[in-house]
Specification:
Elements lengths: L1 E8 L2 E9 L7 E10 L9 E11 L19 H6 L8 E14 L2 E13 L8 E8 L2
Length: 137
Amino acid sequence: MDANIMIPAGDFRIYGDYAKNTVGDKGTGWNAGLGYGSMNLKKSGTWQLEAYYNDVDRGIYHGGNPIQNNMFDATRDNTWKANGLAGKGENIKFWNVMGDVAVMKNIFIHGEYAFGARADKGEDPADSWTLSLNYNF
């Protein structure tokens, strides 16, 4: 189950997401954030920036989420077990900042940084980031 909301206010937008696994006891996840700007792939120089807070349980499905860094890896069941975290925590909370800039028509750079992660038990996940060049066909 997934629910989301976005409230535009001029160049700003306020948004939030809530997800709950409906099979088994796999927990929930939510985020809330603020965005500014609007990237237009047809107009170079346009950009957008977003910042939001995430609260995610282990094992929650993240399909369709725009986050591209590896912070969610810490919540996947197989990663949790492989890193010796099984039984040591069920939730992480972290901040994420992401931005996009259209550099040419249909070409943009995407960057993001996830930081301040706190696991409810065990070791806190390290900060993570990504930078990508994207083409729209």
